[in-house]
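Incident review: delayed structure delivery

Summary: a single-chain prediction request sat in the queue longer than the usual turnaround. Root cause was a stuck worker, restarted by the on-call engineer. No data loss occurred. The affected request and its eventual output are reproduced below so the record is complete for anyone auditing the incident later.

Affected input:
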Amino acid sequence: MAPSTSGPNYVGAGARKRILVTGAAHGIGAAIVRHLAQDGCQMVIADIDLPAAETLSSTARDTVALHVDVSDAASVTALFAKIETHWGGLDGLVHCPGVGVTKSFLDITQDDWSRVLRVNLTGAYLCCRAATRLMMPHRTGSIVGLSSVAAVRPSAMTVPYSASKAALERLIVGLALELRPHGIRANLVAPGATNTELVRRLHSANRRERFTARIPLGRYAEPDEIAGACAFLISDEASFVTGQVLYVDGGMSVANLLAEPGGAGGAS
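Output delivered after worker restart:
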């Protein structure tokens, strides 16, 4: 059933939603921008890599590229001040930035740990807080965070990343509960292994084979598949969805890892 058009917070399918996509210049973020551009959204494309964001903006109509370092409170404040001046409000935030380190836990430095948490968790806190302040006066809005299957299926050598994504899920779900009186929804999309340029560089043939063996659908996701899930959650088609984590991982999050090749063969 289509959402009712009688409520004061409904934004119809033909309306020009004002969407901020952070971490938008590359990979899944760029796929989200392209998908939302096809849906007719107006967008701010924000990224620490401004030249790449500007290149993407030149290929997508009704977009503007702005710089942001999500781990820096002053940078986030400056970004949202520009958005408020330009638009006067915000209908949606899709928050994509994420970094990680691949090291043994005993070799992780405090600087490694702090950097991952600053970008993946503190950055989400800063951006969600600022976005909420622009949405609340209009009593409508949608926030989508980008988590990871690593939040529930952590791997060795990536402890800070997995920990940050698990915490991000609790942050966004808690936000959904707190923002419900203000008409603002908050959800997450959690990708599994995805065929981004970065993953293609980092995953050797051997590592790709091991990952694929853990995915029931037997392949990596394409960035457009993740983008479609984000576009759904940011839209009014998901008007009765909040506080949810949508795993777009080929079934990896629910696979029985004990039965995977090299595992314990299902022994309990």
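Verification: The beta strands are 18-22, 42-47, 63-67, 92-95, 141-146, 184-191, 245-248.
Action items: add queue-age alerting; document worker restart procedure.
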